Amino acid sequence: MLKKSSSLGIIIGLAALAGLLGTVLGGLIVYQALSQNPANPSDQPAPTGESTLAAGQIPKQVLEVNQIDIQTTITQSVEKVGSAVVTVVAANPGQGQVPDPFNSQGASGSGVFISADGYILTNNHVVEGMNEVSVILFDGSQQNAAVIGTDPYADLAVLKSEGQAPAVALLGDSDVLNPGETVIAIGSPLGDFKNTVTVGVVSATGRSIDTGRGYQIEDLIQTDAAINQGNSGGPLLNLAGEVIGINTLVVRGSVENVLTEGLGFAIPANTVRAVAEQIINTGSIARPYLGIRWQSITPEIAMAFDLSTQWGAYITNVVPGSPAQAASLQTGDIITRIGDVAIDESRSFINLIFQYKPGDQVTLEILRNGQTLQVQVTLAGSVP
User: Fold this and answer.
1) Does residue 125 have an active-site annotation?
2) Which of 53, 125, 217, 291 has the fewest beta carbons under 10 Å from its own?
3) What superfamily would CATH give domain 174-272?
4) The pLDDT of residue 65 is above 50
5) Region 19-41 average pLDDT
6) Domain 287-378 classified CATH 2.30.42.10?
């Protein structure tokens, strides 16, 4: 009996030793495989068991890499566009202007070159009523410039410099902007701090601001990127280094006894492009007036609100006495086509409507309560 038990103990011991050796060898094989082919942490599924990280904590290395990537992208965007940004100096001799103690050079605002032959975008309010205009380049040199045309309703002006453009900025597509996207403002706050760079996000799109002149500037981009006096007319960039807006104003101080900050606004690039092309081609702008308030529809918005079209202009209000009311357009209608051209990613509502002039009759295709309708409307001139 003792002999049999001893034999059984030897067998069990050998089995346990074999199991231990198997475990060690298996671990060595796994270690060797991982050493030769290290896994990419970003490719691995999130662990489902216990973790040494606290809930919601992100590994420090991941944060550092993302911060480096973002900072590099911002730097590259600024390098790409910075030399195209100018300080606009406007003056009206003989009007008894009071000198600005913070602005030794009389700078009125900022601007940006958009073509190699010297066309510059800025705000209408920067040059409004001024007889003499010049621009200071990023290297400190100065060039005379002429006002080609202005559009007070969009607060835009096009200048033409007498010298060469050191660089040219490209206009992007403002219709695809989403709240939360990083944006970069470049300009000359207070005139003396040229080519100042500030960074923020798109706070919202489709904003309207009352100008105090009896009309609103519509479809503005709201941003918390710091914008100060002198930034007006400078570019608002995306991380691709494209101009997606022209900075126009900032709400500061208090509104109805409520302290405000971080409320800057920019004219969207698609509006800028349409206005600038007309001014450059004709020297002025004849804005067709439809008489609606509207919101751009993109695939993201269409999905969120279960809309039947991915692109279009959603009518939020019809102005009484306007061409839109005369054509029986209604709040809730979605304009999907203007004439023979559909609104899509590359052809926005504002770009398409600006192809017409006051007095033109145009067919609008609209969606109303699930039905597609054709509506004839006669466009009017701009109404302040």
Assistant:
1) yes
2) 53
3) Trypsin-like serine proteases (2.40.10.10)
4) no
5) 46
6) yes
